[in-house]
């Protein structure tokens, strides 16, 4: 069904309105006073025409908050995207009018200053979580059009310019991600554009910020951080009903467009590279205006022979949003200063023309081999869940059939560490899945390798050196006991020792077979406890400790109590087994003694027969010995008593074994739930508040400390802000996924070395710098 493009007007705060801009009583119209000398050129008017121009829009938002803007202009579009309609929200207006503020917000200011993009990301994730009947996968892309050249802001090499291609297609099943298959609708896609999968809100935000940091900006008279490019951040949603067995999948995308601002170069006084950029910006906006005019005049099948949407990258890409399969909203940003009245009128003219456009949005459903593959991947996930459920119903402890998480690995390392230290019996090591057993072997293997290397080094040094080295280490650390390479009391064997404190088994790759470095040993349990590597691993380990201590201390205490009870029960079991075995050994000994007595008696009888007595054919059984001596009698009585002991001990062992199994299952289940809860909390941005308590505090740079404090404050004000700040932290930590690593960041910074980075570190634009932008 055809629907009109919605148009909203937003003004930025200004002191210098002086009656040049008046909101009309209906709240949706505005009157703009234009000084006769300020009339825009080319309008055909002369000085004696009316000097008040009126425009009407869907709504006019004067100095509105970011929240109001999102609620009025964007929330509906996002909801439509969730039901399968494509959506576009774009900001248009003169330079400095607040387009970037509207779309991205002020990332360096307070949380409530965030713009439409972060809010839309939150809305989409939050709503899809609430709509439990749908499974939704999210991908994002970030495109920049700079001087009419496209750049992929999420590519590994963002400076690469010629690898993107705009393709128009109709019902082509080779591109299922965003296409309304079978509807005959036309769609424009960008081949080669990176689309990143996002597991959660924080990842999507991090990709957005990563792209923003790469965007070209520069400083001029009207705006300190003026965008020099058009940017399109797109969120792709693929959803299907939970339990729906068909390959029918709904796909939709949300384009969030921040256009570069039109600028009168006389006002901005730019020169050199900036002047070139301004010319490109103005030209592309003129093409946009022409395309809008042509579409307004001729409808979707624009037949104007002089105007083609393909004449610029921007119009080509926005073609669907302006007259195709999309629900579109324009936010016209105004700077209603009397000084900018002519730009205000131009913007309003453009906006009212856009208001006449009609789009035809349809719900996009796709049936495609690639979707089927994704469906099978989902089925595998579901089967793993089924298996886990089956285990639960069968009374087995939950088993992780998927990839082992870092938290689980850490727990395992702790347990192996305790086992190596002799604090945990081998039976307590978990072995519910093959994955777990392999991981344990891997840990042991690398621990052994580390020890072996130490030993070889020590032997290579020779006995004297070894003794000296051991003595020096002992003096340094105050305790050389248990060190790798130490001789035991007899001097004939070596203590295996423990792995170095920073030991982490590397992944199972050929490189992983390299020996581990050595260091002073302090105990395997401790070694395993600190066995995380990488910034996030440390943060996660710290977060886990913090979570146990401060967020869920009761549950953590309960888990610790359950583990202590389990250990005590296992001790009881070991003692009962020992009692049982001792009784059995005694019974066996008595039986042996009786047998020997019987055989001796038989031998005596045989010798008597040789002297004339009757010879029995077989030796008599023990009970048939007519006369037994006192010693044999005592032994038989003891055996009888020990048999009773043995039976009782055996029963005790049986019932203790059952109790241990049950308790062990309970512990595993409790722990799995606990770790899952921690994971969910951590994914939502929890954990940052414990960052400073991490022993790696010294490694935090100033920015990270600032992030931490900022996070604490914002979490207090708004508990939903976790993902937003988590994503900023991801960006700052330079994690490769999502976003970019630190080395890539420096490439990006170099890339915009001629300007200022928005959202990143600033480098003032030097107007004398006329060198081409290093792409
Ligand atoms: N509604 C608003 N409330 C508060 N500050 C605003 C508002 N709109 C804009 N600003 C501020 O005005 C300045 C210019 O805004 P912004 O960079 O968003 O303009 P722009 O339209 O994107 O400009 P350009 O086209 O040059 O990139 C920024 O410092 C921004 O924070």
Automatic annotation (TrEMBL):
ATP binds at residues 93-100. SUPFAM superfamilies: P-loop containing nucleoside triphosphate hydrolases. InterPro entries: KIF6/9_C, Kinesin-like_fam, Kinesin_motor_CS, Kinesin_motor_dom, Kinesin_motor_dom_sf, P-loop_NTPase. Residues 602-625, 729-775 are annotated as: Disordered. Residues 761-775 have a biased composition (Basic and acidic residues). One of its GO terms (biological process) is microtubule-based movement. Residues 4-357 form the Kinesin motor domain. Residues 556-600 form a coiled coil. It comes from the Eukaryota. GO terms for molecular function: ATP binding; microtubule binding; microtubule motor activity. Keywords: ATP-binding, Coiled coil, Microtubule, Motor protein, Nucleotide-binding. GO terms for cellular component: microtubule. Gene3D superfamilies: Kinesin motor domain (3.40.850.10). Belongs to the TRAFAC class myosin-kinesin ATPase superfamily. Kinesin family. This is Kinesin-like protein. It comes from Micromonas commoda (strain RCC299 / NOUM17 / CCMP2709). The gene is KLP1.
């Amino acid at each position: 069904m055809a629907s009109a493009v919605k148009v909203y007007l937003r003004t930025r705060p200004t002191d210098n309105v002086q009656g040049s801009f008046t909101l009309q009583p209906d709240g949706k119209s505005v009157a703009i006073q234009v000084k006769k000398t300020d009339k825009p050129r080319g309008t055909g008017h002369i000085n004696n025409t009316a000097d008040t121009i009126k425009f009407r829009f869907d709504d006019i938002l004067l100095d509105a908050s970011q929240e109001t803007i999102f609620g009025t202009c964007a929330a509906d579009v996002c909801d439509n995207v969730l039901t399968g309609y494509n959506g576009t929200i774009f900001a248009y207006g003169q330079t400095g009018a607040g387009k970037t503020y509207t779309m991205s917000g002020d990332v360096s200011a307070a949380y409530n200053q965030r713009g439409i993009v972060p809010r839309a990301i939150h809305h989409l994730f939050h709503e899809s979580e609430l709509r439990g009947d749908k499974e939704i996968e999210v991908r994002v892309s970030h495109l920049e059009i700079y001087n009419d050249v496209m750049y992929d802001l999420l590519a590994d090499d963002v400076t690469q310019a010629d690898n993107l291609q705009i393709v128009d297609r109709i019902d082509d099943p080779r591109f299922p991600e965003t296409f309304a298959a079978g509807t005959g609708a036309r769609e424009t896609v960008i081949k080669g554009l990176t689309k990143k999968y996002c597991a959660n809100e924080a990842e999507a935000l991090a990709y957005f910020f990563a792209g923003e940091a790469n965007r070209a900006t520069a400083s001029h008279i009207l705006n300190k951080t003026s965008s020099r490019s058009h940017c399109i951040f797109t969120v792709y949603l693929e959803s299907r009903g939970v339990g729906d067995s068909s390959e029918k999948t709904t796909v939709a995308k949300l384009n969030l467009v921040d256009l570069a601002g039109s600028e009168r170069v006389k006002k901005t006084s730019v020169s050199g590279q900036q002047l070139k950029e301004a010319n490109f910006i103005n030209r592309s906006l003129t093409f946009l205006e022409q395309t809008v005019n042509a579409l307004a005049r001729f409808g979707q099948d624009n037949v104007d022979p002089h105007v083609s949407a393909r004449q610029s990258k921007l119009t080509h890409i926005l073609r669907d949003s302006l007259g195709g399969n999309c629900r579109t909203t324009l936010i016209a940003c105004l700077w209603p200063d009397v000084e900018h009245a002519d730009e205000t009128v131009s913007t309003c003219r453009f906006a009212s023309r856009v208001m006449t456009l009609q789009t035809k949005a349809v719900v996009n459903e796709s049936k495609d081999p690639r979707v089927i593959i994704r469906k099978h991947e989902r089925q595998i996930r579901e089967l793993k869940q089924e298996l886990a459920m089956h285990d639960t119903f069968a009374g087995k402890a939950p088993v992780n059939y998927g990839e082992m998480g870092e938290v689980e690995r850490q727990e395992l390392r702790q347990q192996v560490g305790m086992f190596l230290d002799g604090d945990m019996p081998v039976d307590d090591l978990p072995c519910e899945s093959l994955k777990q057993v392999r991981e344990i072997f891997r840990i042991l293997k690398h621990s052994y390798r580390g020890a072996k290397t130490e030993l070889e080094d020590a032997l290579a040094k020779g006995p004297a050196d070894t003794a000296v080295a051991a003595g020096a280490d002992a003096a340094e650390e105050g305790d050389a006991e248990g060190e790798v390479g130490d001789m035991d009391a007899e001097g004939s064997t070596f203590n295996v020792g423990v792995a170095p404190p920073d030991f982490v088994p590397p992944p199972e790759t050929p490189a992983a077979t390299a020996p581990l470095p050595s260091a002073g040993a302090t105990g395997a349990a401790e070694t395993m406890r600190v066995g995380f590597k990488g910034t996030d691993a440390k943060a996660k380990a710290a977060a886990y400790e913090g979570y146990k201590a401060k967020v869920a201390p009761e549950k953590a205490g309960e888990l610790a109590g359950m583990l202590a009870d389990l250990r005590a029960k296992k001790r009881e079991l070991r003692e009962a087994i020992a009692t049982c075995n001792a009784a059995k050994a005694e019974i066996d000994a008595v039986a042996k003694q009786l047998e020997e007595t019987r055989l001796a008696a038989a031998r005596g009888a045989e010798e008597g027969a040789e002297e004339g007595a009757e010879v029995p054919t077989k030796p008599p059984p023990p009970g048939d010995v007519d006369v037994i001596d006192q010693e044999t009698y005592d032994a038989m009585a003891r055996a009888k008593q020990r048999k009773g002991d043995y039976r009782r001990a055996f029963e005790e062992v049986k019932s203790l074994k059952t109790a241990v199994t049950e308790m062990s299952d309970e512990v595993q289940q409790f722990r799995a739930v606990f770790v899952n809860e921690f994971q969910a909390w951590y994914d939502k941005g929890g954990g940052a508040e414990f960052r400073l308590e991490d022993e790696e505090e010294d490694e935090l740079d100033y920015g990270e400390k600032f992030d931490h404090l900022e996070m604490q404050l914002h979490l207090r004000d708004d508990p939903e802000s976790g993902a937003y700040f988590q994503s900023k932290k991801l960006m700052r930590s330079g994690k490769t996924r999502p976003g970019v690593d630190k080395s890539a960041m420096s490439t990006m910074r170099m890339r915009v070395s001629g300007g200022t980075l928005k959202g990143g570190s600033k480098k003032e634009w030097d107007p004398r710098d006329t060198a081409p932008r290093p792409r």
